[in-house]
Design goal:
The structure holds two protein chains of two kinds.
Chain A lengths: L8 E13 L9 E13 L3 E5 L6 H8 L7 E6 L5 E4 L11 H11 L4 H15 L14 H13 L5 E5 L7 H16 L3 E5 L3 H7 L2 E6 L2 E6 L1 H31 L1
Parallel strand pairs in A: 3-7, 3-8, 5-6, 6-7
Antiparallel strand pairs in A: 1-2, 1-4, 8-9
Chain B lengths: L2 H22 L5 H21 L5 H26 L1 H4 L1 H4 L8 H27 L11 H25 L3 H15 L12 H10 L1 H15 L5 H24 L1 H9 L1
Helix pairs in contact in B: 1-6, 2-3, 3-6, 3-7, 3-8, 3-10, 6-7, 7-11, 9-10
The chains are: A alpha/beta, B mainly alpha.
Chain lengths: 255, 258
Amino acid sequence: MTAGSDRKLMLELKHVSLDYHSSKGTFDHGVHHVLNDVSFKLYENETLGIIGRNGVGKTTSLRIMADILAPTRGDIITRRGATASLLTLGLGFRPDLSGRDNAMLSAVLQGASEREAIGFLEEIKGFSELGDSFEEPVKTYSSGMRSRLGFTTALMTHVDILLIDEVLSVGDAQFKAKAEQAMKERICGEQTVVFVSHSDSQVQNLCDRVIWLDKGSIAAQGDPETVIAQYRESIRTQTRANKKRLADVSTDLKA
Amino acid sequence: MTVSQYFRLINIHARMLLKVDANTFKLGFLWWFLEPLMWVGVFYVVFNLILDSRKGGDFMVFLTCGKFAFIWFSKTVIQASGSIVASKGLVGKINIPKSVWPMSAIQESLYRQSSVYLLLFVILAFFGIYPDITWLWLVPVLFVMYLMIVAVGLAGAYMVCVVRDFQKFITLGMTFLLFTSGIFWDVRDVGSEEKTQFLLAINPLAFMLDAHRQILMHDTAPAVLHLLLIGVGASILIGLMLLLMRRYNHYLALKVIT
């Protein structure tokens, strides 16, 4: 599954920037720049990973691809008729409703009809391993149980472009492995995926191509091994610089 | 999203909200009836027993008709206005028309209110007021009332998204309407006919509450042209708000998320 110009284009971001006015007015006279001139292409059946530190615009990119947000500047070109859906954990949990009702609501919100959603419910109950707790209110769930319900509900969605935001960091080790396996099966099939994760190993295992976002811009893109190595090196350099700065401050304080 | 999908989603979401409402409190759905009854009780104690301004069972019926209808309007508009902002988590994860949130809140309230109106009819029967052919006028009155709630609820939800501070104004506005719409005083008993007509003309809610009383207590049909005008005005506002929400779908999402 390698990307190339001979493959069919599913989605393209052209010079996309996103700014918003911060209510506190702390950034650049109240304007917060989340994405700055980001361009990339997504091809059919490819799995594209997006890595980067917190707050660099990874989730915002996914939201733009899912048509939840519109860019301030630039264009999004999506193949005609292609559907995209953003999968995140805890979609629409109402704590006073049972796991079953929440799963039903999530499925309907993601476009399933009531009958289709009812059809999914037993599958969701089985995969999430919630047992009788599936009928209990979600407010009684542990965080692991919530994650399992969220992941399983998200897994049931069927769209052309799957945008995945950190959904694999769920539950205990056993469920995590099962979730990763299920996601792998999905990705290896005829599915176009954009995958955001903080786990380098997950990105390396699952993705054909990786984009490294830094401060709202693309710092590097290409094959997973090279980009992840560059990203790790930048983190090491930054950590060393931070340590040096800390050491300088403490020396100054002692003096 | 097709129109049928849109209404299906609103219906399912509203049913779930009803469940949430019933599961949140110990007394569950009994609160749907208790809350309006308690309001009527409070007003009765203040205006009948303490201030001694009105007398007898008539005042109880008068209060019940006005307050039950007003609660439908005020609670729904407050709920609908905050609904998009309250669904912040979902708004950032899924792209569905923003009007789904206020419309679900309005629909939930409609389902709840239908049982509250049944209670109203029971109370009226208790005071010796029984259904009459004139009561059929309730159908257009309730329909226009629903249109008014949708219009104001959608407008409120839009404004709260853009500037959160509007939520404060909406709550304050409902208190203002509580005092100015003739709930515990009679809009037809303000000294002069001109003043009555003026109050009914500038406040559509006062007209709607009065229409309830005219039908249920006096077997009189409401002013049809006035009712029609309110219905048309509300429909235009609904159309406008739906257009605005559609046009600024992404902008509203950004405002809610950030």
